[in-house]
Amino acid sequence: MADKMSDKTRRRLPRHVREQQIIDAAIQVFSKRGYHLAVVDEIAELAGISKPMVYLYFGSKEGLFTACIRREGELLTESFANAARTARDAESQLWRGLSAFFGFVAEHRDGWVVLYRQASEVGGEVAAEVQRQRGEVGAAVASLVASGIARTDTSARLADPEVSFVAMALVGAADALTDWMAEHPGESPDQVTQRLMSMIWVGMRNALAGETWTPPRG
Amino acid sequence: MADKMSDKTRRRLPRHVREQQIIDAAIQVFSKRGYHLAVVDEIAELAGISKPMVYLYFGSKEGLFTACIRREGELLTESFANAARTARDAESQLWRGLSAFFGFVAEHRDGWVVLYRQASEVGGEVAAEVQRQRGEVGAAVASLVASGIARTDTSARLADPEVSFVAMALVGAADALTDWMAEHPGESPDQVTQRLMSMIWVGMRNALAGETWTPPRG
Amino acid sequence: MADKMSDKTRRRLPRHVREQQIIDAAIQVFSKRGYHLAVVDEIAELAGISKPMVYLYFGSKEGLFTACIRREGELLTESFANAARTARDAESQLWRGLSAFFGFVAEHRDGWVVLYRQASEVGGEVAAEVQRQRGEVGAAVASLVASGIARTDTSARLADPEVSFVAMALVGAADALTDWMAEHPGESPDQVTQRLMSMIWVGMRNALAGETWTPPRG
Amino acid sequence: MADKMSDKTRRRLPRHVREQQIIDAAIQVFSKRGYHLAVVDEIAELAGISKPMVYLYFGSKEGLFTACIRREGELLTESFANAARTARDAESQLWRGLSAFFGFVAEHRDGWVVLYRQASEVGGEVAAEVQRQRGEVGAAVASLVASGIARTDTSARLADPEVSFVAMALVGAADALTDWMAEHPGESPDQVTQRLMSMIWVGMRNALAGETWTPPRG
DNA sequence: GATGAATGAGGATTCATTCAT
DNA sequence: CATGAATGAATCCTCATTCAT
Hints:
Four copies of one chain form a homotetramer. By secondary structure, the first copy, chain A, is mainly α. The first copy, chain A, has a domain at 70-209: Tetracycline Repressor, domain 2. Chain A contains eleven helices and no strands. Chain A is elongated. The structure holds a DNA duplex. Chains A, B, C, D: It holds the Pfam family TetR_N.
């Protein structure tokens, strides 16, 4: 009787639920193997269903990947934005935002890998979506950066080379630190964020303020 | 007879030359398509030879990729090390090293992409080589960083979390800025380097010296 | 309550009605796509029901196709026979029969295509039914032809090569003209019939009477 | 030694030869099963090679089918045209042309089936090619018909409804008689042609001359 | 040294068909 | 009566890799 119940837990689920399960499985497999080495069969098996379901719900391997990207991307951007919104001044906002970011990655390692580390691997239609999502993340950071130092019109500054430069560097660094974090399990996301802030906060302010470093004669 | 000669311009080249031609072609294709979407046929055609030659010289697609990685990796590490070696103090060394790095990428975009952006894409044997090469680059930077601020034993500090953290962040930022540079063709590698130094030099020194940033109460 | 009623307009129809609706939809789809390219989903959707109903009523795709073939075949044979029966002499019978045929096709283009143009496409069980139906049509024509010129026993002549030859040629021509008619929407079925009769009536009589054409020496 | 030779007969053949062998096999299989039921594996096996060869040479199942259609279509149109060209007057030309046609079909049954009987079965790109080839055949007949009775400008008459009607009917009848011929192996192509000419020659002339049959009052 | 010919193996995708509700 | 959920079984196609010349 009880096990009839547990059977029911896995069988004949409504579409929406199954879709999430499939995405969960897909993220795992895409993350472990990379897009091309990931085999749809394995995803299906891991999700506890048969291949045709995947195609029924997502249309194609690309479609499935896109769905993964999208879900994780939105999750991240939201948690980033929510965190930043809780603070008023630029410094706090960046701190909160980065902290949320590292926290997210710490808990969604697979998702992050899928989301961010496979740009060159996919081609065609999906590449565009990947670009879009990556851009979203970058834009969130950029807007934080811009607003942080803008005494004047924020939106105008978004296009500034200075801003995009800083944002890009920041995102790149954060991404790379994702691996560092994985190799140093003892460090909490907040500690990592603190390290990063220590390293860039002063310079960032200066850079955005126009104070430039000049090469030594050595 | 005469046309036999002109044929010879392309045919029957010594092994070493052919190998380089093939690697050149391979880097182009791997870079444009990514490892899995790259098709050996296309590489062979681009190199102006037939597929079996590729296998004769490199054994397998993986072997060919490894060769690409290795050649570009060595090129980069050397140019980085050479540049750094010309300076004495830490600041200058980093400046010279990064400058060499951005210069290299500016001229070897394809090579850099192949070298650094495909970690998740390849599996098995090659993955190890990729890791090794990426590590090499990281180590070069790390050693620079470490030596830069070490008043004491350099090699000891290499294992320090501080050092690896800074190195990682730096490499990540530099990598990401590679794209920024591609989108801002007006900026010379030196200008990019200067921007980056402005952003991180102060903070980096402080961070490595143990001065930590602390979160505001906001 | 009221809307339960309006729902009932489409729902819970008696079996016989539903079957006809499904066959209608099936004929459309089979005709547009051909047997293999026709997808059961599309048929079900067009019929406004769900796939399982199709299987409940017809057992299989083949079964559904057979039902289509059968319905249209009977429709045609009957209308052909009825028309022919209204005339007494051979000439009139053929005229009436052909006229009925072209009239039928003009109004049931889809049905005719399904019925007659997919012999090679289906395999196995269905092929037999298709053959049977096509034979039925041929036989009706043949019997007309035979009776038309038979001074003696009609049924005996049915097996004659002359009769089957003429019947076959006639059916083939008529089938092909089906397309011609579709491309010349101005022509009424009766006009088409008249053209055809002009072309074959004299020769047919002669041929059946044993008068043969002989090749010129040119 | 000798059997090394016979091995060589089947192995490592030059592209052009293999292509023809594959087309031969494909025609057989397409003819027996129909386009959709035909499986590329079976074709490859029958041709004595592996599937990838088929794709290397023809690109896709559709491409292979197109190649079949094209080869057989050209064969037929040429043999038809050549035959017709040997005669001067319309009657002889038609006789020779039809005779060549039935001769062709008698010897290339499979080819004919592939060429002409699968219009509805294939979709997309190929459908166009099939249409083109079928049109070619029809055009050849139509041009014969037109020239045969045209006292004035031939090309003008090709568009005439009368001509296209007669040509269509003729092609349709001939196609259908293809089956009749297969069921009456005793009859030579020339005998079949004679039967057909007996049936249509007089009426055709009349029809094209404008003499129309009128329905009896019965 | 060089290549045209050939293939083993595997992956994405589709579809007729059936449960369980 | 009616259907959303689910799948077994093919089929097309591609690609790294290897002979035989």
